[in-house]
Amino acid sequence: MINRVYIKDFLSFKEVDLEFEKGLVVFTGSSGAGKSILMEAILSLFGIKEPKAKLSEVILESSIIDEDFDINIGDEIVIKELKKEKTRYLLNNQSISKKRLYTFSSMLIKHLSLKDKTDFESWKLIKFLDIVSSKNSKFKKIKQEFDTTFQALQKEKKELNKLIEDEKKVEDLKEFAKFEIEKIEAINPLIDEYDELIEVKRKLSKKDKIEAALKSLAPIFDSSHLVSNALELLEVDSSFFDDAINELNNHFEKFNDSLSELEELDIENILNRIEQLSSLQKRFGSIQQALEYKKQKQEDLEKYENISFEKTKLEKRIEDLTAIVFSLASQISEYRKTALIKLENRVNHYLKFLYLSNAKITSNKKELDSTGIDEIIFNLNGVDLDTISSGEFNRLRLALLTSISEFEIVNNGVLFLDEIDANLSGKESSAIATVLSQLSKSYQIFAISHQPQLTSSANQHFLVDKVNGESTVTLLNKEQRVDEISRMISGEDISKEALQFAKNLLN
């Protein structure tokens, strides 16, 4: 349960510091006072809504065990929310992501909003039935195997569809693959060939200049003996000069040898070859990628040649996988039927207090999909939900949501109800108040109320007010509650009848 909430600098609220008790906590106030945004601020502390306050903190008593955060039942939990350039969350002074916070909170907190109309949709009910069934380890194993096998089946079906499409145009595909392979094979490129040919081209472009330079240096070798003689006269060891001349001569001879090799090359063929390799590089990015593309097309061609055989094999695999998936889906369906009975019993339990009865939840067979072969149908007194009144729909929905909450969050958890009694008659409001009063024995419930019936049932009653653009929250004593409930009944001009009716409700 939530013991305390502190919020600072949140829209029209400068500072909120509230302490809560067990049971039903109700917020009332005129339209625009800030009731809904206050609820959102509290929900943001659990990762359910987007944060807007600069600083928020909630202190609650744990009703779960969480080994990751070393939390046991009865421990105090402190969640902080700090918003500057970005929002940070802290759980017992440990940093935590919003996603992880939401997962952690999901066993403690449940938010029920009448704005969400998807609760009776089959996929959502199936999701809940699977949560209930997952308490059985056998079901968890079967469901996991179903999900894995169904994904494999879908993958094989996708591959078969591709093969069928390929089969229709296999001759064109074969011709295209052959054409692409032959085009690359006609060039027959080697990995490093392009770079080597570019180097040859570079040498050929410098050939004439180097020959002319070497020819102009011939007198150096003719006069080298004169330098040696001079060094001897100077009594200087001439070996360094002789070595240099020999080294220079070796380089020149080596180049002359390479020139003779270059002269044997066909420059036109080299340039054509470079152009061919360059065209491959422009198309594929590199010679390596061109060769990989050729290999892929060779594999495709082989597959096209064997497409009928591959198709037969794939069809057999799909047949086997389909049989397995249907078997698993049928087993899952039996577990769901058991969970469905539990859910139906709890819904009808609450409907007794809401002046409704005979909700029926049935499971019909449907075409296999990722959820299995079950379609969940909800009706009331044998009538489709599309034809019942809005009041009946809202009460039925409350019964469903409260029943689901019993399974999804633990005892002593917290329920947030957003305008649960809006636009209801007095009788309907009284019925909802009865249900929530009973439910509040097991859960702490936070509700925004527009009706005196639910408000008078509260264990704590807070008034949200706004004066000069600033919102405040005040815990009301009994006399103040009488005044507020009277206002809800008759408006700002409180009549004696409204005052007496409010006292009777509270008593």
Short description:
With 507 residues, the chain is α/β, with parallel strands linked by helices. It has 17 helices and 15 strands.
Question: How would you characterize this protein structure?
Answer:
By secondary structure, this protein is an alpha/beta fold. Helices cover 57% and strands 19% of the residues. The chain has 17 helices and 15 strands. The chain has a 6-stranded antiparallel sheet with strand order 2-1-4-5-6-7. Helix 12 (307-353) crosses helix 13.
Helical residue percent band: 55-70%
Strand content: 15-25%
The dominant shape is elongated
Structural class: alpha/beta
Give the uncertain stretches in residue-range form: none
Average pLDDT taken over every residue? 87
Protein topology:
Elements: E1 2-10, E2 13-19, E3 24-28, H1 35-44, E4 55-61, E5 76-83, E6 87-91, E7 94-96, H2 98-105, E8 109-113, H3 122-133, H4 137-168, H5 170-187, H6 193-216, H7 218-222, H8 224-233, H9 239-264, H10 267-284, H11 287-305, H12 307-353, E9 359-369, E10 372-380, E11 383-384, H13 390-408, E12 414-418, H14 426-439, E13 444-448, H15 452-456, E14 460-467, E15 470-475, H16 478-490, H17 496-506
Parallel strand pairs: 3-13, 3-14, 8-12, 12-13
Antiparallel strand pairs: 1-2, 1-4, 4-5, 5-6, 6-7, 9-10, 10-11, 14-15
Distinctive features:
507 residues; alpha/beta; 6-stranded antiparallel beta sheet; 6-stranded mixed beta sheet; 17 helices; 15 strands; 57% helix; elongated; DNA repair protein RecN; DNA_recomb/repair_RecN; coiled coil; Rad50/SbcC_AAA
